Sequence to fold (755 residues):
Amino acid sequence: MKNYKNSIFYVTTVAGFSMLIFWVLSKGKFLEDGREIVSATSAKDHWDEFLDSMMHSLKEPLAILLLQIISIILVARFFGWMFRKIGQPSVIGEMVAGIVLGPSLVGLYFPEFFENLFPVASLGNLKFLSQIGLILFMFVIGMELDLKALKNKANDAVVISHASIIFPFTLGISLAYFIYTHFAPDGVEFLSFALFIGISMSITAFPVLARIVQERGIHKTKLGTIVITCAAADDITAWCILATVIAIVKAGSFVSSLYVIALAIAYVFLMLKVVRPFLARVGQLKNSRQSLSKPVVAIFLLTLIVSAYTTEIIGIHALFGAFMAGAIMPDSAKFRAIFIEKVEDVSVIILLPLFFVFTGLRTEIGLISDPELMKMTGLIIAVAVIGKFLGSAIAAKFVGQNWRDSLTIGALMNTRGLMELIVLNIGLDLGVLSPEIFTMMVIMALVTTFMTGPALDLINFIFKTKDVIVPEEVRKVDKYKILFSFGNSDRGKSLLRLANSFVKKENTESIVTAMHLTSSNELHTFDLEEQEKKSFTPIIAESKNLDQKIVTLFKASNDINTDIADIANQGDYDLLLVGLGQSIFEGTLLGKVLGFTTRIINPDRLIDKFIGKEGLFENSPFDERTRQIIANSKMPVGILVDKDLKCPNKVFMPIFSKDDVFLIDYAEKLVYNNDSHITFIDPNEAIVSNEEIHERISEIEQNNPSSTKMGERIIKKDFLKDQDIMIISLESWKKLIDTQSIWLTNIPSVLIIKP
Fold:
């Protein structure tokens, strides 16, 4: 009744007011008498008016900016993905994307498109929006620094860090002496030019370095701790030097800059002694996602904006203020993680790529087409690498590191990345760097960042070592070893229960390793331990319930699928278990919903669509991931299709051919360790016709009469519902799919094994 009344009211209201609007518009038509009204009279005129209006809208500054953002994000994400695939940080791809969209490539070969996408009048909007992105990014970088850890571990790190600054800084100033005459812009003093060349040579990209350390799995090692601390100290020192350099450049002389430097020192003192304690108090009271309300977030964002504004008007650049605001945020890792999550997505995904492209628009590779300029670019790269790499490596060796670790530190500290681009853009904005030297320096930033990965691989090759991820207790034992890799805790617990059923009574003669890999882009240096604890807490609790000892392995990865196989190979495991999870069932042929759907929709078509005519790994949504793991793994791989597996007590095992004989090994383990009841299915009479298979199953039957049942050829729906899991070979699974068996609508969890 209520809905009926609402409908009557809605219709009456809309109809009544529509009639009133029509009446007013009709009466208003008479008001046009005596006025010259120009309007289209034909369909063509209306169409032309529409086109003119649309073209006018396309040229509006907002429309151009939105189109630029769309284009930039798409190209940046594509290049970032492409470079991750070749083992490089995504930031390299985004830097390259900026150059590709600039005058060096798109502007050179597609000038009309370039002019329409990036008209000169629009670059101001792009610049200011990218600067906002940089301010937010530097705020995040400041929060990523763990000042407590820096204070506790700074002994050797500060020596290495400062050596890695003074060496390239000195070489940079020396280089400036020789290139000042030819490359310094008119009106720029040698002091300003030399200082900017020096600081440009001295920068290390802390965010990129931290990601590489995580991805290589050395963040928990002494080497990883030292190099991250070095980079953090380098970041703080370099930004302080940069602020001083900017002050000198803007003031015109060192003496004049003393006033700016004095104000900067007062600002830092105020931030550390007044603002930081206040924010720490707020952080203690508001350190959960629920309590971090909008007014509280406003306090911290206002601190960021005021800090950036203060340093901008002092004369040491807004980015230093943003960095400082991030560094004084409350020390709580939980608080910082929540706040970074709020800020980072917008800054890194949307705004930061604008900066890369804006840098690319200022970078004209064609400016250095002359052979002499190419030689100069090579010299700049050489000076940068020698100064940073050797400076860091020699200092590391001096404080007691071995040569391998010293060279590794040198290679990592030579990473420049985004931080270098920020410095170079500041130099170009201040008029200290010419377009030619700016382009050379951008190329240097790309080369030195790109070479980090290959340099680390070369160092490991020379010293006949490699970054070993596998724990010591796994690598140096001769036991039956199972590794299971999980993405979420529910799937991890199912995999753990399955692994436990294979080794339950042989716990002392076996090792089970639980591995969780997470994308390096999702982690920050300060919350690695927190993320690891969060990932493994449910798994460890389940292992205690099962009385199963496990070894845990956590790694930030740039390529999870490849790393799963590599780590399994390093540890020489006997079995690798991975899970596909319930997502394969949800809404598909294998789910309860689809079990009903198959009665009203052609099941053949659904099988083709969701599983693939060639088997699970050919045309299914999971083909590439699983295929990559299978192709790269040197041991048997088990793929668990999980339907809430509790314990594999009731197991059925179809034997399609003599090649499935290896499955008997797993049947024996389940019977012995888990007292599982195994039902062997013989659809093609492979058991009956193959003597080896028949004898092995008969032996299991004799030793465990109540645990096996042999020779079934046809299985019924009720039987499938009563089972816990089906264990099948990869090739047999493909054959099962080829026959489009009715099993697929009713099977329980499935373990597909590639021998």
Remarks:
- The first helix runs from residue 2 to 29.
